[in-house]
Amino acid sequence: MKFSRILFGTVVAILFFSKSIYSQQLSNNNGNAIRLSPKTLHSPSKAALRSAILPGWGQIYNKRWWKLPLVYGGVASLIWIYNFNNNYYKEFLTEAQLREEGKPGNPDYKNASDAGIIAVKDFYRRNRDLTILSMVAFWGINIIDAYVDAKFFQFDIGDDLSLRITPDFGSLYGTNSVYASNPYVGLSLKLNMKNEKIH
């Protein structure tokens, strides 16, 4: 119960308090600047709200069609697991109740002890309850994924950006003596960003 309240509070905070406070300038054919308001840009809040209403809708809004099978495959799997555990929980619950009343139960379980039936019932109830929590967590992950994906929707990953990773070998001179050195092995990261004017 506490977990679901925290998750609900997080979703509310994402949807209503995280406004995008930026604007972007583009130029039209005449060279005049066009100022775009956040409402005309791709909205992370809209993506999160849509995923909160219907899982996968935020991914469709973000044009990430390939994520739909993952979302609905996850939802279908969790529903199947819930039904599986719930059916067995009800079956063993009925068996435990019949034994408590002294009535004959399922003949398949006649060799099982009362404590064993109760233990199996509790096992399936626990798995069913964990599946419900997993559904809530999966729903939250779906919302967060849509929100983060929308945030990076206009992120530039073009050819103007490059990262080069190269091995690095060398020596570090110690502080005690001018001649003392410590060899090292590492990686060198070089980030190139080209600034070109758009005509």
Outline the secondary-structure elements.
Blueprint: H1 2-17, E1 24-27, E2 33-36, H2 44-53, H3 57-61, H4 68-101, H5 114-151, E3 161-173, E4 181-193
Antiparallel strand pairs: 1-2, 3-4
Provide structural commentary.
This protein has 199 residues and is of the alpha+beta class. 52% of the residues lie in helices and 17% in strands. The chain is built from five helices and four strands. The protein has helices at 2-17, 44-53, 57-61, 68-101, 114-151; strands spanning 24-27, 33-36, 161-173, 181-193. The chain is elongated, with a radius of gyration of 29 Å. The model is unreliable at 15-28 (pLDDT under 50).
* Poorly predicted ranges: 15-28
Please give the domain count: 2
**Strand count, sense and closure of the main sheet?**
2 strands, antiparallel
The SS-based structural class is alpha+beta
Quote the distance from N terminus to C terminus.
57 Å
Coarse shape: elongated
Beta content comes to: 15-25%
β-strand number: 4
Mean pLDDT: 77
List SSEs in N-to-C order.
HEEHHHHEE
Number of helices: 5
Strand order of the largest sheet: 1-2
Rg is 29 Å
Percentage of residues in helical conformation: 40-55%
